[in-house]
Structures are given as structure tokens and as C-alpha cells.
Here is the input.
Amino acid sequence: MTAESTVPSPGGEPPEYGFSSVSVITPRGAGSGFGLPPRRPAIRQRLSRLALVAVDAGAALVSARLLVDTRTPGHPLLVAGVLLAVVCLNTRARLYRPPAVPALLDELPAVCARVVVCWSVLAAAVAASSPGHSLSLGAMALGCALQSALSCAGRSTVHWQRRRTLARRPGAALVVGPTATAQRVAAAFLRRPGCGLRPVGVVADQAAGGDGLPVLTTDEEVRRAVVQNGVQTVLVVGPRGEREPLLRALAEAGCALWQVDAESPSYDRSSERLAGFPCRRLSMTERHEGFAKRALDMVVSGSLLLMVSPLLLATAVVLRLSEGPGVVFRQERIGKGGRPFTLFKFRTHRPADAREAATRWSVADEQEMRWFCRFLRRTSLDELLQLWNVLRGDMSLVGPRPERPYFVTKFGQTYPGYADRHRMRTGITGLAQIHGLRGDTSIEDRARFDNAYIDDWSLWQDVCVLLRTAAALVRPTGS
Here is the structure.
């Protein structure tokens, strides 16, 4: 399960596009360091969300009051139930967290579908409480149509006002990445003011000549640009590399971080489109997994350790007799939040030295391993000791696969989104592994699947991954 391989992405930087620059004024007596003042919350965005809640609740209240007989027992409770159901369903569907540039047509199917569900539940509740006042099919259809029309009309107004505000007063933004690519992305956003973002500077390691936005190469220059321009958004182009501490500081200061895929035609299905580029929100904070995930890990890992303890003992004895002492392999891996931990496995290969163990990519195909070691690798039985890591809390049953510090640094500088995998506890198996991203496969694809798992995490998804992993063990393909 742990042998992996890189598939390099095509390199090369696009040509630089010129445009009029935006100045970043250096104040007198500016201090050093990257201290940023605390930010005020995004009042306009929060008001838009509250307006959407009010619109949906008002549409539900009006339609229920008009079409549900007031003589129905528990009428106020039924109306209140409809209001609560609408708000809860829409919250669950993230309809109160609209995209950066909201549009009614994008969310129309979701809004109407949830209205139909709420009216179906309401009709069932009325029929159960008072059969004599049951809603007819015509009344249900009219209620669905009325509530959908009112909700969509209100949402359209809120979204129109939001887009109008974004176009008239776009927010200042910084673009972080290679100079040429960042300047090209900044030019595209400046040509599309309707996106609501106005780049004011480029953050890069080295300044480059030519026209374009000011290139900020030091933390002090970035700090001045953020303070003087009121920057609230940061567009990250390409791998973050050594800019990780800077981006974390910007996120803690209240800036929204977006990963912009400037090269490929699409990032994934969950990405948004800004100025024609696929973009997704970046989170620099660890994902809160909750008690349920940890409880599942402890129950399953503890039960499995008890069940397979005879197998573990037999494996250790055979390895001791055939390979000599040192049957347990210990190696430093990087876990949640970038914190190192010691991973346990059965030893199937003895590296020449500590450097080889830390930097050599894979030994899964080496034929000099004895038959029993190859059997352990092929069936992934050498991974069973990681159940102890799960029970201790170093790992989870499901999550991104942990990697050695050398490769974490290397991949984090090369592949966009790789560092985001450490927002959640690493796992024995994961969404990438059940989709065949093991062995000689793309690290970029693996990072994309791992981040999709973290963004959409649910306990049921963990159960599905575990079931599919168990099914895959029936037809093992090796580690």
C-alpha cells in the first residue's frame, strides 16, 4: 500500500502579458516583520447569507399560510416545521454559502428539489394529524410552485445585488506564484472586473522585468501591500513551496486563499470558475474530524488487533527465523498538521543505511527479497501493524497515506495542493487508494483525491472506503 511513484507534470512557464501597473506605496518609517492587524469580518458577505435565509424562510411562511388550512390541528407547529426543514435542507446543501460570483440558475435545481421534499413532508404531517384536512395533489403542486417562485425571485435579487457590488467595488487581491504565470493570471482578473477581484501585486521569489503588477519578494513588502490596499483575497498559482508560512499568516489575518489552476483546463468538479480559471478554496487550518471518526478508528482497530493477533505472532516468528532479528520496521512519517510520528510495519527489506531508508522511493519490485517478504508486500499484510498506529491516534483507518519528510518537502514544492493533505489525520487506506492510485501512479492525482476526501468527509464515506478496501484485498495487486 505504501509504494508510490511520481509522474512529473509538464513544466514550462507561459509568456508574460503586459498591463498597467498598480503602485504599492512604501510608507515612511515602516517597521520590519510580518505582523498584520486583525481583520474585520466580511460584513457584506454575511449580510448576503442572512438575506438568503430570510428569503427562503419568508417564501415558506407565505406559501404555507396561504395553502394550509388554519383549522388544521397544530397549524402553527406545521408551519414552523416547514420553515425549519427548508433552512436545514438548504444549509446542508450549502445554499447559504454561494460561490464567489453567485448565479440563480446554478442553484435552481437544488432549491426546487428541496421545496418539493418539504411540501411532501408537510402533506404527510397534515394527513397524519388531521385526515379531514389533507392536502390535495393540486394544493401540493401549487404550494411547491408558489414557494419556489418566491424563493427564486428573492434569491435572484440578492445575487444580483451581490454581483453588482462586486463589479463596482472589487476587492484587492495578491497573486502568489512564479512571476510570469502570476502576471498572466493577474492580467486575466483585471480584464474581468465582474469576478469581484482586483489584483494589486504579485508575490514571487524573484523580480522580473517588463510591464505588469509590482513584484513583492519580501515579507515586509507583502505586509505593506496588504495593509495599504486592504487585501482580503490571495490567489495561489502553482505549488506553494517555501511560501507556506506566509500564506498561513495571511490566512490567520483574515485573507481568503484560492488555489488557481492556470495550466490545465479543469481542476475537479467541485472547483469554481473565476476569470475562466478553475479555482478552489484553500484551508490552512486542520480539519476537525469529530468524535465519530475517532470512535470508529478505536473500535475497528482494537477489534482487528484482537482478531489478527495470532496472525501477527505467526508472521513475526517466520520473519525472525528467515530474516533474523528486527522484524518490526520503524520509520518517521508526517501526519496531521505536519507533525512527525513513528510508523510500524513488518520488515520486508533492509536498506543499506538510514539515508536510503529516508530517501529511496520504493523497493516493492526488487526480486532479491525472499518469497515470504514478497508475499507480505503483495498481500499488504506487512501493513497490519499500522493498526497499532491507529489505536494510538497517530493515524486513522481512512485518510491520506503518510509519507516520509524528504518526499513531503519535495512533493509540497512540486504539486499544487499536496500540503493540504495534512489537514486531516493520515490513514491506512484512502479515497486515492481505492481508485487505483497506488504504486506507479501520479502524485498530483493522488493529492487531488485526498483533498476531495477531506473536503467532503463524512462517516459514511469512511465506511464505504473501508468496504471497498476489504473487497480489493480479495484481489491484491501488491504494495
Observations:
- Residues 1-33 have pLDDT under 50 and may be disordered.
- The radius of gyration is 27 Å.
- Residues 251 and 277 are 21 Å apart (CA to CA).
